[in-house]
Amino acid sequence: MTVLSRVSPFAGLAAAALCLSGCNILIPDTGATDPARFVQETSPVFYNPPGVDPMRVKPIDTPVPQRPGVPPTIYNQTYGIPGANFSRTYGLPVTNPVNSAMYGQVRDTDFTLPAIPVSRIDPQYLRQEVDYPTKEKPGTIVVDTRTKHLYFVEPGGKAMRYGVGIGREGYAWSGRGVIQWKQKWPRWTPPDEMVARQPDVRAFSAENGGMNPGLGNPLGARALYIFKDGQDTLYRIHGTPDWQSVGKSTSSGCVRMLNQDVVDLYDRVPAKTEIVVM
Question: How many CB atoms lie under 10 A from the CB of residue 273?
Fold first, then answer.
């Protein structure tokens, strides 16, 4: 009886060990460390029907079916702007949230810049970093009047690109100059030539003190003054409350930018920055 009582615990342990060994719990699976096996077990599996060349299958270009009673705005849509490459499908936002953040309402000193409806602007005219190989040194401003883009040249073949509005034919300026100085919320003083062409702005002429800064001021939130050979060209890079003029040739010669963009450029550009308008 005493011998059996001493042997039975060891017998129970042996039986338990045999049972566990059958489940491979006590034996580690070292095969899981084999790279070839790992790739085989984790590689994706695709359905390839016999006789079908996946490279020759054309994508289905039909609208997503809409369920009755569901507003059509939650289904796949595009901006409706030529060249737009953003879309939304099944409730995703139609506007890029990054753009919405960049062009949202901003409190700037004594003024609050209203949000810009970016969904109504061609995406190519929204601020973005792009590849831009150029011989111009980093820190130079390049205005391409043909494409209506302003580039702030960065190192490594990059540039920050902004959309701009430019002067109507006959009123544009081109050449090389420098940003002689810059101003936050500038006072607008139309030159005598403009006053002669547009008598309605005479109230804001130099002799009358110009227009006070503000949301309705044609120079917007910032102005960068272009000089050449030490002389004021009378042309500016400036903000505008008229966001619809960006991407168009509508101004009296200056380079217009969205207010949020000109604030961004102002913070990047020191005085004496070189500028090329071509």
Answer: 18
Please report, for the chain, the start and end positions of each structural domain, with discontinuous segments joined by +. 95-185+220-277
- For the chain, which residues score pLDDT lower than 70? 1-95, 169-171, 252
Q: What confidence score (pLDDT) does residue 100 get?
A: 82
What is each CA distance from 25 to 12, 16, 37, 50, 116, in whole angstroms?
18, 12, 20, 42, 64
Class of domain 95-185+220-277: mainly beta
Mean pLDDT of the chain: 77
DSSP classification of residue 211: B
pLDDT score of 30 = 46
Q: Which of 265, 272, 259 is nearest to 109 (CA)?
A: 259
The model's pTM is 0.65
Catalytic annotation, residues:
238, 254
> Residue 30: what are its φ and ψ, rounded to 5°?
-75, -10
Distance CA 255, CA 11 (A): 93
d(CA 220, CA 108): 12
